[in-house]
Write a structure and sequence with these properties.
Layout (H helix, E strand, L loop, with lengths): L5 H6 L1 E6 L4 E6 L5 E9 L5 H5 L7 E5 L3 E2 L18 E3 L2 E2 L11 H7 L4 E3 L3 H11 L2 E6 L7 H10 L9 H4 L5 E3 L23 E7 L4 H9 L2 E7 L4 H6 L4 E4 L10 H10 L5 E4 L1 H9 L4 E17 L4 E13 L1 H4 L4 E7 L5 E6 L4 E4 L14 H11 L1
Helix pairs in contact: 9-10
């Protein structure tokens, strides 16, 4: 692991420009390049490696509200995908890593993956701005090219944004694969003690990859569910030919209404096989059943969101990462019923079909990072397939 040259780091200035005209100055500690993206904030106090390796952040610039980032470095066991897809990373203060699991610094990873990043930003001010005005289109200027502040703002304003854009096909796997190989996860991802072993596979499913996180696949596997992961645009007919015990619709980035091929595939699969969905998958399945989605003001990004389970009146603390949500009013004239709601803004967090074997949640039961309160949902999927 290379040691960060802090003196050099402080000399490499950077600019963050927002579409509303706000200009913030800091220091570049990632790739020396410029990038456009949708600026969001994440309230997690830890787990930055899992956050930046989550494909759901494709097209987004992530600002961490916790002020000190980087102290645990990066290790080979906590990735959620093979690459980084986010557009940029914003922190208040970047730390020198000091952890026994660390094999590279956060700065080394961002440089290797060609992701621009800025430290020295007043992230408290930035978070307040996003909460007040909503998600902003933004421009990161970290290159050596001379660009005026006015032009930086202009670039942010003129960017097309994420609305109506299909990013799922960009982050999806190119070829199908079976997730049951310990080598894929270095043999250390499973969270098993020395006396525990992986359970035998009882059910085999097909998992649509719209930006799937590895910990989702681990969570399924730990419940005895083997997964054949397929590209986002795999047809429903091909899925049926595989004769799976169930189909899983994964998380993913950007606007669910733009993923029209996934919605059409969902319509064809509903009623033919048990189905579970998470995050983008929840939105796709809801649209397929007649509901509609809309953009949240500043999204849900963090690992401390309270959700009420309407089926048993319990409250779960959940990990979330989404900018769109299913509109509650649109569910009323469908065959869906709401099963979970967000206690912060009362938005829809889960649904199930009234007559078909289908359920989905907006949040992430696999956490990574975050609490494990909702991990029971993988067991519920197993129960659904046993009927």
């Amino acid at each position: 692991m290379q040691k960060t040259d802090w003196k050099k780091l402080r000399a490499e200035s950077a600019t963050l420009a927002l579409e509303d005209g706000t200009i913030l100055k800091g220091y570049s500690f990632g790739a020396r390049k410029d990038m456009l993206g949708e600026l969001v904030f994440n309230t997690g106090m830890s787990g930055y490696q899992e956050i930046i390796s989550d494909p759901s952040y494709a097209g987004q610039i992530v600002a961490m509200t916790y002020p000190e980032i980087g102290n645990t470095g990066i290790n080979s066991s906590d990735y959620e995908s093979t690459s980084l897809f986010l557009s940029g990373f914003i922190v208040h203060n970047i730390n020198q890593p000091s952890n026994w699991r660390c094999d590279k610094s956060l700065q080394e990873l961002l440089m290797k993956e060609d992701i621009p990043a800025i430290s020295g930003i007043d992230t408290r001010f930035l978070t307040h701005l996003l909460r007040s005005k909503g998600t902003q289109k933004a421009f990161i200027h970290c290159s050596d090219e001379i660009i005026t502040e006015e032009d930086c703002v202009k670039k942010a304003k003129e960017w097309e944004g994420l609305d109506g854009q299909d990013y799922a096909s960009k982050v999806s796997c190119k070829d199908a694969y079976d997730f049951d190989n310990l080598e894929m996860t270095n043999g250390t991802y499973w969270g098993l003690s020395d006396s525990e072993i992986l359970p035998q596979i009882e059910y085999n499913i097909v998992a649509y990859d719209y930006g799937i996180k590895w910990n989702i696949l681990r969570g399924l596997r730990l419940k005895g569910i083997g997964a054949r992961v397929v590209p986002a645009q795999t047809s429903a007919e091909e899925i049926v030919r595989l004769k799976p015990d169930g189909v899983f619709f994964s998380n993913g980035p950007a606007d669910p209404a733009a993923v029209t091929y996934a919605i059409e595939n969902a319509k064809k699969l509903i009623g033919k096989v048990p189905i579970m969905g998470i995050c983008l998958g929840h939105q796709i399945l809801s649209i397929a059943c007649g509901a509609v989605t809309s953009r949240l003001k500043f999204g849900h990004h963090g690992c401390n969101h309270p959700v009420k389970n309407l089926l048993n009146e319990s409250v779960e603390i959940t990990s979330q990462n989404h900018n769109f949500a299913v509109t509650p009013e649109s569910i009323k004239n469908t065959q869906l019923e709401v099963t979970h709601i967000n206690l912060n803004d009362m938005s829809v967090e889960g649904m199930r079909h009234k007559t078909e074997p289908l359920f989905a949640v907006q949040y992430h039961p696999e956490a990574a990072p975050g609490p494990h309160d909702p991990s029971y949902l993988f067991k519920n999927f197993k129960t659904l397939m046993s009927r």
